Automatic annotation (TrEMBL):
This is ABC transporter permease. Keywords: Membrane, Transmembrane, Transmembrane helix. The chain crosses the membrane at residues 17-38, 44-67, 94-119, 139-166. It comes from Geobacillus sp. (strain WCH70).
Length: 167
């Protein structure tokens, strides 16, 4: 077996609970928001929380990497004596964090899309609603969130290295 695949499996085992917990929180927040929207007959009551949850995904990989690196810091001697290059160790963490970001962001963006369709039915005319433009704007927003999240995760890694050097 490829040693890098072993690293991926290790990262998956370590972070599996974190991934399912965040997806569960996303679903729970959106279900509660949906129930409020039904109770008060106001689709914005579902849209705003789902938009906030989707926007918070910009910090997802940052938090994921910080928690993962904190876990590894407790066993730093194992990291220092592994024969794997640093690139492989870090890329396994980044790949698992990126995959979990995509899964969680997909679920969150799907709820946001459903909430926005409810807003469209109530507040917009069919003539002024351009569905293609809406989809393109949504994809651009999701891409921006993903890129910002990756950027912050790499910065977290950079600052973690500086912290370990200064320690």
């Amino acid at each position: 077996m490829n040693p890098w695949i072993g690293l991926l499996k290790k990262e998956w085992r370590i972070s599996k609970l974190w991934i399912w917990t965040t997806v569960g929180i996303v679903i729970a927040v959106n279900i509660v928001a949906y129930l409020f929207a039904l109770k008060y007959d106001e689709p914005i009551a579902m849209f705003v929380p789902s938009l906030i949850v989707t926007s918070l995904h910009a910090f997802y990989m940052l938090m994921f990497m910080a928690l993962s690196l904190q876990t590894e810091a407790k066993r730093l001697h194992l990291w220092l004596h592994t024969p794997q290059p640093v690139f492989r160790l870090v890329s396994a963490k980044l790949l698992i964090a990126f995959g979990s970001l995509l899964v969680s962001l997909f679920v969150s963006a799907l709820f946001t899309y459903i909430a926005l369709l409810g807003i469209k039915e109530r507040y917009f005319n069919e003539e002024m609603w351009d569905h293609e433009l809406f989809i393109q704007s949504g994809m651009l927003a999701v891409l921006s969130i993903v890129l910002l999240s990756v950027h912050m995760a790499v910065l977290c890694l950079f600052y973690w290295v500086i912290y370990l050097i200064c320690k």
